[in-house]
Each structure stands twice: as C-alpha cells, then as structure tokens.
Amino acid sequence: MAHQTTALTNNEYRSVKAWSNSDISMVLQSPALLEWSRNTPTEGSDSVDLGTHVHCAVLEPDVFRQEYVKMPEFDVRTSVGKLQAEAFKNNMDRKIILDHKTHKTVIAMRDSILAHPVANKLLTSPGQSEVSIFGELQGLKVKCRPDRSVDPEAFGGQHILIDVKKTADIDKFIYSVRDFGYHRQNAYYSDIYFQLTGHRPRFVFVVVGEKRSIGRHPVRVWELPEEVVEIGRLQYLDGLEKCKEYDEFGCGLDIEQLDMRGLIR
Known about the structure:
By secondary structure, the protein is of the alpha+beta class. The chain has a single domain (3-7, 18-35, 43-249), classed as Alpha-Beta Complex (Lambda Exonuclease, Chain A). Helices cover 49% and strands 17% of the residues. A five-stranded mixed sheet has the order 4-7-8-9-10. It has a three-stranded antiparallel sheet with strand order 1-5-6, with helices on one face. A two-stranded parallel ribbon has the order 2-3. Helix 10 (182-197) packs across helix 11. The radius of gyration is 21 Å and the shape is globular. The termini are far apart.
C-alpha cells in the first residue's frame, strides 16, 4: 500500500530501503556502478551544494532562515580577519554558513524564480514540500521525494508535482533531460504518485539557470511531451527488472562496454 510522510529528513529518506530513481539511473548504466556508489559516500560538490541551497531557499524558506547564515566579509588576508572568521564560525553552532558570493547567488536565483508569475503561483500555493512517497512497482519497494506537491484544490482539482532544477545553461536544458534522465524521473514519480492517489499528476519543471542572461538568472517552467515521458517509463521499467536481477545475483563480474559509436570509424 502506497503511503506518504513529511516526517523524514532527506538523509532519513535516503536510508529507507526502497528503490529510488537515482538507484535506477545507476543500475541502467551498470549494477556494479550502483554498488560502487553505495560503497563510496560522497561529500558532494560546489555545484550540487548550490542546487541544495537554492532548493531550501525556494521550497523551505523557514528552514533557510533558521539554518543558514551569511559569512561577513572578513579580510582573511590578515591575522585579525582570520581570527574574526574563525570566531564567527565557532559561534554559528550547526548552522550552514555560506560565503558572501554563494549567499548572493542563492538569493538571486531564489528571487528570480519567484519573480516568474507561473513559478510563483505553483511554489507559493497551498501544498507540501519534500514529501516522501513510498509504494511498490513490479513487485519492488520504490520511493520518490517530489520537491513540491501542490494541493489539488489550488488549481481546480489538478494534481501537480513540482521539480525545481538548477542548470548551468538554461538554453541547454534539453540535453540535461536526456543526460540525467529527467524524463525517466517524470514517469517514475508520476506512477508512484498515481499509486498513492489514483490521479495522474502534471509533472512540472521549474528551471533556473546558473549562467546569467542580461544580468539575471533565467527561469523557465516546462512540462515534457508525453511521448518523451513514455520513453522514460519504458526505461525505468527496464531498470526495475535489472534491480530484481541485482537483488538476486548481485553485480557479479559486470564489465561495461565503452560506447564509441561515431567516434572511431
């Protein structure tokens, strides 16, 4: 039986044993890659961290105000500045400290998103952010965590899931859909949500560009064509079959073949 909860932190959600879209992405490349990723926890990267900060600022503004703080511009080239910076860090117990440049970028990207009238309506209407949904597909336990689920009453009974994406160059987002499997994510989340509610949701991407255009972070609100989502659905179903094989046999001697089509003739 599918169910949802808002009680889990992101780390707690990740620890629940069920197949996520990220797991399927790994398995489709190689079951060995999935096992490798589980054996090598990552501390993230500046790009991933920036996306996390923007997500929090947009989707959980109260949490952002409580848990984030901007580092003052101390002159760390001097011994006094270094001592001031260190003292500031020590006084900010468990808070996430953003340097001046990063904080400015996060706020600018948040404000740009909320300046878009459609994005603003979707993100500020009644609903829930960071909801953990659990279900079962193809006999496997599955899970997803939409950025935001809009209250159906907000838009005349429409069920809408929102995914906020930060992209390096918004003009190339179409390639990000392909390269990161966002069409597969669209289908996977929608099908788990359907199992929960009995309704097919609209899956909407609110996309903000890290690269500025005319001094602003560009924002677009997109849905994917249904035929592209269906390709994603076939991909995740294939991935779940590979998940079953992994559960039963492990990764074995899984050696990938390097795809060099079109490069060497």
